[in-house]
Model the fold of this input.
Amino acid sequence: MRSLTRLWIGICAVAAVLTAFSNDASRAQEKSADELVALLKSKLLTERDVDAAPRFDVITCDQSGPRLTIYKGGADWNDPDSVLWNWEPADSLPETEAKRFSAIDECKPALNNTAVLTNASAGAVALIRLNDKKVLFYGFAGGNTHSVALLPDGNVVSASSTGRFLALFATPEGEREADEEATPIYKTFELDQAHGVVWDAKRKTLWALGYGALVGYEYVGTKSEPDLREIFRLPLEGKYRSGHDLYPASGYDALVTTDGTGINVFDPEKRTLTRVADYRDIKSVSVSPDGETLVLKPTEEWWTESVLYGDASERAAGTKNGARFYKARWFVPNRFSEPE
Done:
């Protein structure tokens, strides 16, 4: 973990030096939550032309393996040449630990697209470096883990739905060994049916989505003794109540949320939630830098072989025969959580 800690310290130091020069320009380019609402309403469930060859690649979590796969955008996913990167738990972990990645259900680009954050319903949480598939962090949360976020100092927080908690991990120092046991939870925070977590670098806030609430936390304490302090709670009622996915939209100062009946936009500045489409049982929605949508709609229990654009014709952005995709995201840097 020493390499991860150094990398994060370096990122933070560079960011601090460049803030005075770059923040104003980057904020001017950042689009608002209202603009995201308009975009999604024009894209989702509408009759429209879809670019047959998207410019961006796609990362998926596939429960048939389980595995993480990055596919070339616009390629035939049944062609082996479409696979740009693939990871299975056994690639990096002993068999006993790899089993904890059963039902893998998250895939988030991290560290400027040099790593991937992942977790599984069986309770495992990990940060994996792309170039050598090394597990930089591995923890065990339990409680049907559904999402994970990387904090500014390299610590990690996950969301567990049936466990009804967020788990905060104080990542250890030193390079992690392949046979090392999972990092234990440092502290938990109750959140009914916790399903989503995202770090907001602009507001220095951790947003978390559960059943009946979208909650904001201040990250306090130190790296070795971290803590979360609740500073905001938006009650979710009616059709919004069963929160599932929470993820930034590339280029927007906003988050996309999904629930049991639709897709919404959360404005972290106004702290409001807006419905953009009624769309049942959606597992994830991703927005590319050029404004194209990517939707994971299960066709069998909670998985599917195809990832969709989300238009009225339900055209596929990619299909892999025999896959059990649970979530899919454009593989682009997460500037909402990791600013340049």
